[in-house]
Amino acid sequence: MTSARTRERLINRLMDNGITNQLVLDRFRSVPRHLFVQEALASRAYEDDALPIGFGQTISQPLIVALMTQALLEESDGSLRKMQKVLEIGTGCGYQTAVLAPLVATVYSIERVAPLLQETRKRLSSLNIANLRLRRDDGHRGWPGQAPFDGIIVTAAPTDVPQNLLAQLAPGGRLIMPVGEQSTAQTLLRITATESGFVEEKLGKVAFVPMIED
Ligand code: SAH
Fold first, then answer.
1. Do 150 and 170 contact (CB within 8 A), yes or no?
2. pLDDT below 50 — which residues of the chain?
């Protein structure tokens, strides 16, 4: 159920749906997604679906994790941008964190639910992912003490773009996030901080859990 063949089927699905970057695809070959879900769901870990992870939260659909990772890092010539500091909001089970960590220098990740963060801290450390700082907080605040960030990736949906996050982007930096009222009406955005202001691109419709205010 977690065989190379099952995993390769997922990779083919990602490639069929616009994931072209080999370094990004390689992360989906190597991150053991079955270790991020409860044992009872492990047989479904390489299907392209969101799954429950407890605490009313979900592990994101692999295709969406891949699209967001590619949107964050990819340059127009297909190479990956070298980012020093990336802020992630909504650590959850840490799957997106694990996909991203080897592709950037340091990931700073914020999660609201303390017991979930505790489990995830253990999981990521047992997978030897060490270029990482985790913090329990409301992600609407960002992480001012570590700003600015070359990239910010948000995996829960606020109703509006948090101004604090825009303010914590480095020049040229990118913010990838879903925004919308209900899970049925969210849009995935890429916002780039340019010299002449913020430039917004719509990347498609998505369904994330809400970003909750503490
Ligand atoms: N990144 C995860 C998906 C996590 S689901 C993955 O790779 O699968 C979204 C997560 O955002 C949940 O764990 C939820 O608790 C968290 N969250 C919701 N509101 C938040 C907030 N205001 N600040 C930080 N985390 C928040």
1. yes
2. none
Determine, yes or no, domain membership for 30. Answer: no
To test the ligand 1 pocket, which listed residue (27, 34, 112) has its Cβ within 8 A of the most ligand atoms?
112
The pLDDT tens digits for 147-171 are: 999 999 999 999 999 999 999 999 9
Q: Which domain holds residue 137?
A: 63-206
What CATH number does residue 74 fall under?
3.40.50.150
What confidence score (pLDDT) does residue 4 get? Answer: 80
* Active-site amino acid positions: 60
Tokens coding 67: 């699209």
Q: Say how many Å lie between the CA of residue 90 and the centre of ligand 1.
A: 3
Q: Are 195 and 174 in contact (CB under 8 A)?
A: no
- Is the shortest distance between the CB of 176 and ligand 1 below 6 Å? no
140 lines ligand 1 (CB under 6 A): yes
Strands (E), the chain: 51-54, 57-59, 85-89, 106-111, 132-136, 149-154, 169-179, 186-194, 197-206
Instruction: List pLDDT tens digits, range 51-63.
Output: 999 998 999 999 9
| Counted domains in the chain | 1
Q: How many helices (H) and strands (E) does the chain have?
A: 6, 9
Distance of alpha carbon 65 from alpha carbon 83, whole angstroms: 18
Q: Whose CA is nearest to atom 14 of ligand 1?
A: 90
212 CB under 6 A from ligand 1? yes
